[in-house]
Amino acid sequence: MSESTGPEGRRFPAPQQLAAAANVGPDVYAEADRDRLAFWETQARRLSWAQEWDEVLDWSKPPFAKWFVGGKLNVAYNCLDRHVEAGHGDQVAYHWEGEPGDTRTLTYAQLTEDVCRAANALLELGVQAGDRVAIYMPMIPETVVAMLACARIGAVHMVVFGGFSADALASRLDDAGAVLVITADGGYRRGAPSALKPAVDDAVGRSPGVRNVLVVKRTEQDVEWTEGRDLWWHDVVDRQSPRHTPEAFDAEHPLYIMYTSGTTAKPKGILHTSGGYLTQVAFTHWATFDLKPDTDVYWTAADVGWVTGHSYIVYGPLANRATSVMYEGTPETPHRGRWFELIQKYGVTILYTAPTVIRTVMKWGEDIPAGFDLTSLRLLGSVGEPINPEAWLWYHQNIGGGRCPIMDTWWQTETGAHMITPLPGVTDLVPGSAQHPFPGISAKVVDDEGNELGDDSTGLLVLTEPWPSMLRTIWGDDDRYVDTYWSRFGTNVYFAGDGAKKDADGNIWLLGRVDDVMNVSGHRISTTEVESSLVGHPTVAEAAVVGASDPTTGQGIVAFVILRGSAEDSGEDLVQTLRNHVARDIGPIAKPRQIMVVQELPKTRSGKIMRRLLRDVAENRELGDVTTLTDSSVMNLIKEKLPASS
Ligand code: WTA
């Protein structure tokens, strides 16, 4: 791809070779605009329905939507059996690789049989349609099998990320009213087996509704056992019949609950349902990634324990009959080239990951990816936070060899699937911007009163029409659903909680959560904008910026930076240089009050920087809840760096 410079910075024209054979062309936008509901109806026909719907959308009681009203389907059948019936049983669904290097290959036929066995096992344990089943697992094939087995019998799965604490698990078991927990003895992380069962024992001890715990043997470590409650997966599942006739469920039958943190301490159980969800994840996966089921090797390098894993490791890829890679462990185990080794080994053609990983590899240096053959890659994706232009360009050059377009996909646990993204072969790419609403999606940038803003302005991101994979409610709390998302601008407008800017060409730039937008002397400054400026300096690998309360300016900008390996100097001079760099880059108003050089930043397991904790540090407060951090010792390291007075 050749590069050209426009008024907003660099642009990369859509690669023509890809465009010639792309799954969707430029006319897809016009088609969706002509008749949005007819467009989604067409996409729903990509699935196999046991019964057609009577109505595409019932929006008579906003914000409670019903999509494909009256339609019936089985989600697992759509992900598995229908591909086997069409003669693709021998196609690989997953090339799975454990962190220690053990591998398993699952074809569509094998996966279908495994899911049928697990479905029969769940039925034997008395699980019924509508029951909630918690899945607290490492990244192993049984995790996917368990999710699909639930879907197959109409049970509602609730995957809790394996790194979460017993407390987090217990509160979710309680909130969802789970009857069964599926877990493992442990999984491999950073070169060692880590345990899962002790947290389950602790959490289930406090959850009287849980009748059984089904345990997969993965690491062979010793586990405590509660007779009558605990069962080995291999004892119960392996002896079941590999046949099971799927029942068709209503399009609005609940598929899963995924907990996500909100502004209060109590996590929100985001509820997704069946027909609309599967329609949009399947279509976006096919269109955004130009997925060619016969030739692509697709890899979402994320954890199944968050929504990206649900939509783009499990449901989207399987609905599209993709061949995927699934990897259990961390990118640096046993060496920092592990991911690139996997791309080379499996000939990965499409890689989807998060900016934080890209910046981490950037910090390690380009020699690491350069040591592997990455020429199989043809398309890259990014998700989870804004990707700053420097990281975009680095990803493009050092992973994508300058030839792979990058799809910067904006979406949320709540939206279920991609909402704002470029399309491959269609969109000329602008590094750092997620660019355009996906066809059939209505996204706008509005001011505080909800008035739509024109190009070249900054405001709040809203979604003005319901979409098929939207959340249906917060589990057990319809009021909170309405209050959180649909009250700021009325019950027809979804408030995403993200700041956004439209540039002069109509591209949408996401500016981070609105609670991450700082107010310095009455000026709105995005933490992301300052971070992006800092990482644009050659000495900085990663940066996190928070607004700390300031008696004169309202908020003052405090930055935490990790230097690149080559930049040793962390003295006053460098700090001054960086402050001036930001002032020059964005304007004097954005000059950080304070910059602290640190070794690590506190991150959640899904890779988001926990600015809340950094704000506590910057404002010299007791640290808040650190249970969702990947490594809670990071905060001690950061506090040690602080001057005693601050
Ligand atoms: C942020 C992850 C900018 C955003 C799928 C959103 C992004 C939140 C992007 C949802 C992106 C996600 N550009 N920001 N491409 N993707 N975000 O629920 O703030 O874990 O509201 O879903 O991540 O995070 P969640």
UniProtKB/TrEMBL annotation:
<dbReference type="InterPro" id="IPR025110">
    <property type="entry name" value="AMP-bd_C"/>
</dbReference>
<dbReference type="GO" id="GO:0003987">
    <property type="term" value="F:acetate-CoA ligase activity"/>
</dbReference>
<dbReference type="InterPro" id="IPR000873">
    <property type="entry name" value="AMP-dep_synth/lig_dom"/>
</dbReference>
<feature type="domain" description="Acetyl-coenzyme A synthetase N-terminal">
    <location>
        <begin position="27"/>
        <end position="79"/>
    </location>
</feature>
<feature type="domain" description="AMP-binding enzyme C-terminal">
    <location>
        <begin position="529"/>
        <end position="608"/>
    </location>
</feature>
<comment type="function">
    <text>Catalyzes the conversion of acetate into acetyl-CoA (AcCoA), an essential intermediate at the junction of anabolic and catabolic pathways. AcsA undergoes a two-step reaction. In the first half reaction, AcsA combines acetate with ATP to form acetyl-adenylate (AcAMP) intermediate. In the second half reaction, it can then transfer the acetyl group from AcAMP to the sulfhydryl group of CoA, forming the product AcCoA.</text>
</comment>
<keyword id="KW-0007">Acetylation</keyword>
<feature type="binding site">
    <location>
        <position position="521"/>
    </location>
    <ligand>
        <name>CoA</name>
    </ligand>
</feature>
<feature type="binding site">
    <location>
        <position position="308"/>
    </location>
    <ligand>
        <name>CoA</name>
    </ligand>
</feature>
<dbReference type="Pfam" id="PF13193">
    <property type="entry name" value="AMP-binding_C"/>
</dbReference>
<keyword id="KW-0067">ATP-binding</keyword>
<dbReference type="GO" id="GO:0019427">
    <property type="term" value="P:acetyl-CoA biosynthetic process from acetate"/>
</dbReference>
<feature type="modified residue" description="N6-acetyllysine">
    <location>
        <position position="608"/>
    </location>
</feature>
<comment type="similarity">
    <text>Belongs to the ATP-dependent AMP-binding enzyme family.</text>
</comment>
<feature type="binding site">
    <location>
        <position position="513"/>
    </location>
    <ligand>
        <name>ATP</name>
    </ligand>
</feature>
<keyword id="KW-0479">Metal-binding</keyword>
<feature type="binding site">
    <location>
        <position position="535"/>
    </location>
    <ligand>
        <name>Mg(2+)</name>
    </ligand>
</feature>
<keyword id="KW-0460">Magnesium</keyword>
<feature type="binding site">
    <location>
        <begin position="189"/>
        <end position="192"/>
    </location>
    <ligand>
        <name>CoA</name>
    </ligand>
</feature>
<dbReference type="GO" id="GO:0016208">
    <property type="term" value="F:AMP binding"/>
</dbReference>
<dbReference type="InterPro" id="IPR042099">
    <property type="entry name" value="ANL_N_sf"/>
</dbReference>
<keyword id="KW-0436">Ligase</keyword>
<protein>
    <recommendedName>
        <fullName>Acetyl-coenzyme A synthetase</fullName>
        <ecNumber>6.2.1.1</ecNumber>
    </recommendedName>
</protein>
<dbReference type="InterPro" id="IPR011904">
    <property type="entry name" value="Ac_CoA_lig"/>
</dbReference>
<dbReference type="GO" id="GO:0005829">
    <property type="term" value="C:cytosol"/>
</dbReference>
<feature type="binding site">
    <location>
        <begin position="408"/>
        <end position="413"/>
    </location>
    <ligand>
        <name>ATP</name>
    </ligand>
</feature>
<dbReference type="Pfam" id="PF00501">
    <property type="entry name" value="AMP-binding"/>
</dbReference>
<feature type="binding site">
    <location>
        <position position="524"/>
    </location>
    <ligand>
        <name>ATP</name>
    </ligand>
</feature>
<keyword id="KW-0547">Nucleotide-binding</keyword>
<feature type="binding site">
    <location>
        <position position="498"/>
    </location>
    <ligand>
        <name>ATP</name>
    </ligand>
</feature>
<feature type="binding site">
    <location>
        <begin position="384"/>
        <end position="386"/>
    </location>
    <ligand>
        <name>ATP</name>
    </ligand>
</feature>
<dbReference type="InterPro" id="IPR032387">
    <property type="entry name" value="ACAS_N"/>
</dbReference>
<dbReference type="GO" id="GO:0005524">
    <property type="term" value="F:ATP binding"/>
</dbReference>
<feature type="binding site">
    <location>
        <position position="537"/>
    </location>
    <ligand>
        <name>Mg(2+)</name>
    </ligand>
</feature>
<dbReference type="Pfam" id="PF16177">
    <property type="entry name" value="ACAS_N"/>
</dbReference>
<feature type="binding site">
    <location>
        <position position="540"/>
    </location>
    <ligand>
        <name>Mg(2+)</name>
    </ligand>
</feature>
<dbReference type="InterPro" id="IPR045851">
    <property type="entry name" value="AMP-bd_C_sf"/>
</dbReference>
<feature type="domain" description="AMP-dependent synthetase/ligase">
    <location>
        <begin position="86"/>
        <end position="467"/>
    </location>
</feature>
<dbReference type="GO" id="GO:0046872">
    <property type="term" value="F:metal ion binding"/>
</dbReference>
